[in-house]
Amino acid sequence: MTMRDLWEAWLRLLFPVPCLLCAGPLAVGAAGGVCAPCWAALPRLPPACCAACGRPLPPSTPGSEDPRPTCGACLRRPPPYALARAALPYGEAGPVRALVLALKHGRRLALAAPLARLMHAEAPGRVDVTAFDALVPVPLHWRRRWGRGFNQAAALAEGLGRSAGRRVLRRALVRVRSTVPQAGDAAARRDNVRGAFAVPSPAAVEGRRLLLIDDVYTTGATVGECARVLRASGAVAVGVYTLARVT
Ligand SMILES: [Zn+2]
Ligand SMILES: [Zn+2]
Hints:
The chain has nine helices and seven strands. It is α/β, with parallel strands linked by helices. It has one domain: Rossmann fold, CATH 3.40.50.2020. The strands form two sheets. The chain has a five-stranded parallel beta sheet with strand order 1-7-6-2-3. A two-stranded antiparallel sheet has the order 4-5. Strand 6, helix 9 (221-232) and strand 7 form a beta-alpha-beta unit. The chain binds zinc ion (2 copies). The site of one zinc ion has 8 residues, from helix 3.
């Protein structure tokens, strides 16, 4: 125990801090203000999913040859990225949503490091992070980042980059147009983000294999547009890895 731990333990005695998820008592050093049992109990996405967009699929039937078939939506309209994968299921309610909202809107930046470690731990069997040259966070518009103080996707990318030994290209992609919160069908969402991103210096992405990082994959419209712009600027392959995914 360091002096800092002792000091923290003393403060906890005076002012107990509840776990962000279960409101139970928090041990000293609990990562991101969440207790160890809550971290362990977080639901994970099953490994069986669409080869392209990562949509969870029922486990393959015995004897079926393809453990990762491509879903109907991706067959009809192949996405601009090579693959999209996520670690956690993002439900309408529940702990994953609570963590994402706390990170994004509650300014609980201390959550970024343990969530990035979780992404690193969950990567095997989902996405080979080391097969990519660098990580690229989905950018926020400067006005929104200014209001929020940080970009949660960049914070996750920095943590994952440290764990996986990959560079993070924070300026590879910028948001040139602020978009209204997304609604509507897939086509409306694609229109909503069209022209919202740009690559300031194509030399930084040319010939590279890039892994886009974001907090939540909803319909894939945002990461799809990011991938399209990166590919148009010369990136040879673009993958997507998000902390969570709407199922
Ligand atoms: Zn807890
Ligand atoms: Zn799919």
